[in-house]
Write a structure and sequence with these properties.
The chain has 564 residues and is an alpha+beta fold. It has helices at residues 2-25, 59-72, 120-135, 140-148, 159-167, 280-291, 320-333, 339-342, 345-348, 359-367, 417-434, 540-562; strands at residues 30-35, 77-84, 90-96, 106-112, 149-154, 204-211, 219-227, 296-301, 305-308, 371-377, 389-394, 398-403, 438-447, 454-463, 475-478, 483-486, 495-503, 513-519, 523-532. The chain starts with a helix and ends with a helix. It binds zinc ion.
């Protein structure tokens, strides 16, 4: 009997001790952490149509479209005037992002329309915006992109030229509207091209010299070309003082004016300006780009189908493997019409020497944009065909061919704009897929709560772009953007653990300490560290021992009672 009581006491004691150990582990306040996740935007808008669908927009109509989407979806659309054109038109940048989540996100950019006649680029930019708004809250992928990225879109960097191209029928204007007296007669732009025959298009005339000495005469040598127009100022010359001066895509500082020649001649289509950033349009873009960091960006052009990656002076890609991989990615998603241009790329590994004064080279070399792509979205193959050229002169020495441009060199006909947009859509989705957003989740936190003590964080970081990483280290910052700790960079598609230590400069309070994890390229995830009780996590081994002893105790008690 005494032995039984002794056994019973022993068993009960053995049960109580581990429970006591478990309880004492949980005492005291500790730092706890929570991710700050903003809300989604409630979708309270119907599908938005363009106010001017199926037509090319002039700059006033572009502004109307932007005001319209801003009014309809203010929580996703923000308009920013980044500067003025030469003639004083506003240069507008649209930002599409979930504005209920204010922490800086990964940024991406589409800038359209450096070149006046490339109107289709304005149209694609407008349709890109609508596509995002019309699919937010419906399509999970697009909702995720808009929630986690700041998508910047400049629909026209050259609105002055857009006005001339759309409303004055000058479909050949490429440059900006900086006035210039090309022929030195005291007047600016007084002898421009015209649609003389009133067919709605300005013809291009190609002059060839006949070479009758060859074995198979006549053999033609291209000599020169000119445009439809008249001698407006009666100086016996025509089109010698055209509208437009600077090629905005030759006005950036990298390799500016390198090569000379046409670049330095104000009369040519590629005049680079009096100095880098001489023009208000490129200055405005520069100031905008200096405020924002983009890992990837598109500049839209037309006239050919191509994806130009920046190159160095020796025609090499500075990001050889990455660009090679991306040309393969793009070959899968670009329209068929791009094939002939992409076909030779993987072996050639480069398309042209670094463009003198080009946008992409500046973005790469001075703004740290890993992948700035000059995307040429439209090519009209008819310019290369015999049928599209009409012989208007054929004498002993010359042949002149007229290309009426009726097929539109830089732009499709209006009712094909929507078709082209649908074909190019995957390329725009690719941009968003490639933008490196960093997904961060803290897996453990420990440390003190008083000033001078430190807190240790363990987190898992995953870069959601399959190709582009965070480029720079991942930082832990306070909301004043002071760096609290620095960890490693995360590569494209990588999932990496990071460790960080935060020194507390003051006691942790119930208000909490807000911290940001990320960097300028990948955006930031916000967390709040506050006071809490340790979570009731119990060591499974300890728990097993407790349960085991308890079960044993019950068995022993039952045995004792039964055998009495
Ligand atoms: Zn262009």
């Amino acid at each position: 009997m005494r032995l039984r009581i002794l056994l019973l006491s022993l068993v009960l004691t053995l049960t109580i001790i581990p429970v006591q150990v478990l309880a004492t582990e949980q005492e005291g306040l500790v730092p706890v952490i929570e991710k700050v996740v903003g809300s989604s935007v409630d979708r309270n808008w119907e599908a938005i149509a363009l106010l001017y669908d199926g037509q090319f927009h002039d700059p006033v109509e572009v502004d109307e479209e932007l005001e319209n989407i801003h009014a309809l979806v203010p929580d996703l659309v923000d308009l920013e005037t980044i500067g003025q054109s030469y003639q004083g038109r506003n240069l507008t940048c649209v930002r599409i992002t979930n504005e209920l989540r204010v922490t800086q996100k990964a940024k991406t950019l589409v800038v359209a329309h450096h070149h006046g006649r490339e109107q289709i680029t304005v149209e694609l930019a407008l349709r890109f915006m609508l596509h995002l708004l019309n699919n937010y809250g419906i399509d999970d992928t697009i909702t995720e992109y808009v929630d986690t990225q700041e998508i910047y879109i400049i629909p026209t960097l050259n609105p002055d030229a857009l006005e001339v191209v759309v409303n004055q029928g000058n479909h050949w204007l490429r440059k900006n509207l900086h006035p210039f007296d090309n022929d030195g007669d005291g007047n600016c732009s007084e002898d421009d091209v015209e649609d003389v025959d009133g067919d709605g298009w300005i013809s291009n005339y190609y002059v060839y010299l006949k070479d009758n000495s060859s074995d198979n005469p006549p053999f033609y040598d291209y000599d020169w070309e000119y445009w439809e127009g008249i001698d407006n100022d009666n100086d016996t010359l025509f089109n010698e003082d055209e509208v437009g001066l600077v090629d905005l895509n030759r006005n950036y500082p990298i390799f500016w004016s390198v090569g000379g020649g046409d670049l330095l001649d104000p009369a040519t289509q590629v005049y680079c300006g009096s100095e880098p950033f001489s023009e208000p349009e490129t200055k405005a873009f520069r100031d905008f780009a200096l405020k924002n960091r983009f890992s990837m960006a598109y500049s839209l052009h037309s006239g050919i189908n191509a994806t130009y990656f920046p190159t160095d002076e020796d025609e090499y890609w500075p990001e050889n493997q990455l660009y090679y991989q991306m040309t393969l990615d793009l070959a899968d998603i670009l329209p068929e019409s791009f094939n002939e241009y992409l076909g030779y790329l993987p072996s050639k590994m480069s398309q042209e020497a670094g463009l003198s004064g080009g946008w992409a080279e500046w973005m790469y070399y001075q703004r740290g944009t890993t992948v700035p792509i000059t995307l040429e979205v439209y090519h009209n193959g008819s310019v290369d065909t015999e049928e599209a050229h009409v012989i208007i002169l054929n004498n002993d020495t010359h042949i002149i061919r007229e290309w009426e441009g009726i097929y539109g060199y830089f732009n499709p006909v209006e009712d094909k704009i929507g078709t082209l947009w649908n074909e190019m859509l995957p390329t725009f989705m690719y941009l968003l897929e490639m933008t490196p957003r960093l997904d961060v989740s803290v897996t453990a936190i420990s440390g003190g709560i008083t000033a001078g003590s430190s807190i240790s964080l363990s987190a898992r970081t995953e870069c959601l772009s399959p190709r582009l990483g965070t480029k720079e280290n991942v930082y832990i910052l306070n909301t004043s953007m002071d760096v609290l700790d620095t960890t490693i960079a995360v590569g494209g598609g990588q999932s990496l653990p990071i460790q960080a230590t935060i020194e507390l400069s003051e006691d942790l309070t119930n208000d909490g300490l807000n911290i940001l994890i990320g960097n300028n390229y990948s955006g930031f995830t916000e967390f709040v560290i506050s006071l809490g009780y340790p979570s009731m996590t119990i060591d499974p081994v300890l728990l097993g021992v407790v349960i085991g002893i308890s079960v044993l105790a019950i068995v022993v008690v039952v045995y004792i009672v039964k055998t009495r």
